[in-house]
Design brief:
This protein is mostly helical. It contains eleven helices and nine strands. It has a three-stranded antiparallel sheet, with no helix packed on it. Strand 2 and strand 3 form a beta hairpin. The chain binds zinc ion (2 copies). One zinc ion binds next to strand 5.
Length: 330
């Protein structure tokens, strides 16, 4: 596992082996997708469907679902994670002081002194500023350290081995679209291959190709069942403006724990991830609002201390208001 150092992890030969192993789940998914394409297009449509009109219709629908699904998957896998800007990194002199701090209190004061000008509202359970001991930097709101990526990731949701990437601020929209389109892709295959699946059991299909259709139906149905709960769960999280990590451990603000601290109402929460341009909502292009560092919070968490970022996000957003015009100002 890649841990610790931001740069050194892959310099050793074993580091490269680890890097290669991490691609195995992605390779597995790619193989399943390629096989499903062959099984559907060649075995089902070209060699089994008897009616030309039906075949054309199936192929058109299939390719639309296939292209958008693969596009969303590609974007989820290859979008770089959002990393923390340099201004959150503790300067050398502060770091020296921190290493020689005699007490917890002194440690806390050094970080608080440095973070006074930073736009952070989240706190630890003890009420301290969130600080990453590995990256030596203050964590922006909703950012967490990912031990697999070896760095702090903006609005980290979880590290997903199936995409070999952190699902976070930069690719969260792509991830949800990937789940949604994968589900549509599987359901489409199940529905259009159903009658041929029945023919198989009746003994009406001949040749070895019929086994491809049998497995295609089973695999698509199995993936659809496992995807539906995950997709619904992430729709719920979007509606409540929570990451998976925040669903397990509610964010803490100066005023205390608040699981709905970032929630601005379902529609605004949706826009925060999918953007304000309806035409792009369901396309795998980046349209999420904000910069991944500062987020609108509910009014009770406002603080006058952070006016250095202007009359923006953290000081102006009403409890259930539309924080998005303001977010774009940041
Ligand atoms: Zn970190
Ligand atoms: Zn990660």
């Amino acid at each position: 596992m890649a841990t610790g150092s931001e740069f050194g992890s892959y310099n050793r030969p074993c580091g490269w082996c680890v890097k290669a192993v991490k691609w195995i789940p992605v390779l597995f998914i790619v193989c399943v997708i390629i096989w499903s394409y062959y099984a559907y297009v060649v075995q089902l449509c070209f060699l089994t469907v008897p009616n030309f009109f039906e075949m054309t219709l199936y192929l058109i629908g299939y390719h639309v679902a296939f292209i958008i699904f693969v596009w969303a998957y590609y974007q989820t896998v290859f979008t770089p994670i959002g990393t923390v800007p340099r201004k959150f990194k503790l300067p050398k002199e502060d770091l020296e002081k921190l290493l020689h701090a005699d007490s917890e209190e002194q440690h806390r004061q050094i970080i608080e002194g440095f973070a006074a000008s930073l736009p952070v509202t989240n706190r630890t359970v003890t009420g301290a500023i969130r600080y990453c001991e590995k990256c030596h930097q203050v964590k922006p709101d909703r950012a967490h350290h990912c031990s697999v990526c070896g760095c702090c990731v903006l609005k980290m949701d979880h590290h997903c081995p199936w995409v070999n990437n952190c699902v976070s601020f930069t690719n969260y929209k792509f991830f949800i679209l990937f789940l949604g389109y994968a589900l549509i892709y599987c359901i489409y295959i199940v529905l259009t291959s159903l009658q041929y699946f029945i023919q198989f059991w009746r003994g009406d299909l001949q040749g070895m190709g019929r086994f491809h259709i049998l497995f295609l139906f089973f695999v698509a149905a199995m993936f659809a069942v496992s995807l539906v709960s995950l997709f619904c769960y992430h729709c719920y999280l979007v509606a409540h403006n929570r990451s998976t990590l925040e669903a397990f451990r509610a964010p803490i603000f100066r005023t205390g724990v608040d699981k709905n601290g970032f929630s601005l109402g379902a529609y605004n929460n949706f826009q925060e991830v999918f953007g304000d341009n309806r035409a792009c909502w369901f396309l795998p292009v980046f349209t999420s609002l904000g910069d991944g560092i500062v987020y609108p919070v509910r009014s009770q968490h406002h603080s006058g201390q952070y006016n250095s970022i202007g009359v923006t996000v953290n000081s102006e957003v009403p409890e259930q208001g539309t924080g998005f015009g303001l977010m774009q100002v940041v």
